[in-house]
Specification:
- The chain is α+β, with helices and mostly antiparallel strands.
- It has four helices and seven strands, in the order E-H-H-E-E-E-E-E-E-H-H.
- It has a single domain (5-150), classed as 2-Layer Sandwich (Alpha-D-Glucose-1,6-Bisphosphate, Chain A, domain 4).
- The chain has a seven-stranded antiparallel β-sheet.
- It is globular.
- The termini are far apart.
Length: 152
Amino acid sequence: MDWSHYRFRSLWVLPAPPAAVYGLLEQAEDYPRWWPQVRRVNRIDDTTGVITIRSVLPYDLTFTAREVRRDPDAGVLEIAMSGDIDGWARWIVTPRGGGSIARYDQVVDVNKPLLRRLALPGRPVFRANHWLMMRAGRRGLLAYLARNQETV
């Protein structure tokens, strides 16, 4: 087993229609406005950007994200990642009652040398770090959605 290989899945139940959620998720350059762990998004062109993230642990991960699929009708956003992490991530936004579910799937290999050296003993901590980041992202998006609905 490669201890630097990870699969993650998060489900965010949100009180906004899928089109509104999708519209916010497709604007990656705005993530730092509502997701504190997304520190920087620097757009390179229409389909590529460099993203820096940091959760609870004191290390940054920087990677290039390249759009692979953007399908508003299907509610799918997918990127390929390379840099400190290599792999892919995908949002799928679907209706649920009067709101939506945003499903996030990610499969990555960690390349950052320190994290690779600590892969086996650090794995539970790294997974918890990711969970905390995703929890904060959901909370941030909920607050951002609420602010946007108030201004409409």
